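Worked example

This section walks through a single chain of length 319. The input is the sequence exactly as stored; nothing has been trimmed or padded.
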Amino acid sequence: MIEDVLNMEVRLTRLDATRTATVKGHYDGIIAGQVIVLNGRTLEAVSHSGAVTRLGVLAVAPLWQGVGTVVVKPDLTQWLYTIVDTNTWTSRVHVGTASSDRVIATIPSPDGNAFFQPFAWNASGIYMVKEATGLGGAGPFLEYHFDLATFDMSAGRATVVSPDCLAYNVLDDGTLICGRAGQGYLEVRTPAGQTRKIQVTIGGSATDYDFWAYSHVALSPDNKRLIAARNGAKDPVINYQMVIAELTASSASPFGPMDYVPDAWLPDGRVVADHWCVQFEGAGPCDATLNGTYIFSADGRSRDLFYKLPQGSAVVGYV
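Given that input, the structure is written out below as tokens.
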């Protein structure tokens, strides 16, 4: 599945690079094996075969924030989104169905500089993030994540998770995958209250050069392992490298050569990843002629070119 930001469309493509469907709109995520696309105010679900089903129409177009701007209930019957007042950063929470759309809560900004935005809706509940304003910057690891909050639909209340959890993922059983500000590890928090740390970077904390020393965190299809891109250099220059870890592990192991970042994890264990050279002060040597999207073997030892995607396009998932 490829998102083309410049042409504002989502394309489904087989692993032999044959296109099977093209749908206009923003990629909003994958729910119950369906690709969710928001085209203006129209919410659609695209099946593996490319069939498009119109779920409903939003009352107002939300401020686009990327995947999860609209969170959809796993049975595809309801969805939730917020409309944010950019003067006060108050969030009006909408719940929609095929035949209705209503405001169920109004959540004030917690501090005048943040607002609440949807993040996930699964079997364990509805989640939001407390999103900061006025962000900027660049770099391979500069990837913003925000404090996770639970959302009580009946009470119309968002409650920030404690201790703070910079949200990467929430599993169906309520397990949280959390980042920690300025640290080189991820936390796996179980519903039973256990917290495990997975060291992702080579050192301990994030480097002074980038806020995060890792990015592109994703889970395997069975939700038992994670993959990420980290600063894999052992000297002052920056070269990123993929790493893999079991969710029960304490550290991550290298996967493949330098200068690749993961896009998607296939059911057979193979990984779709991009070779990505970013030119900026502090970056290590990188062969830009290799830039493209590749499919790695499950052990990371071999790879085949999948696509040379134009600027503004990226593989965003597998369905």
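What to look for: The CA atoms of residues 11 and 86 lie 32 Å apart.
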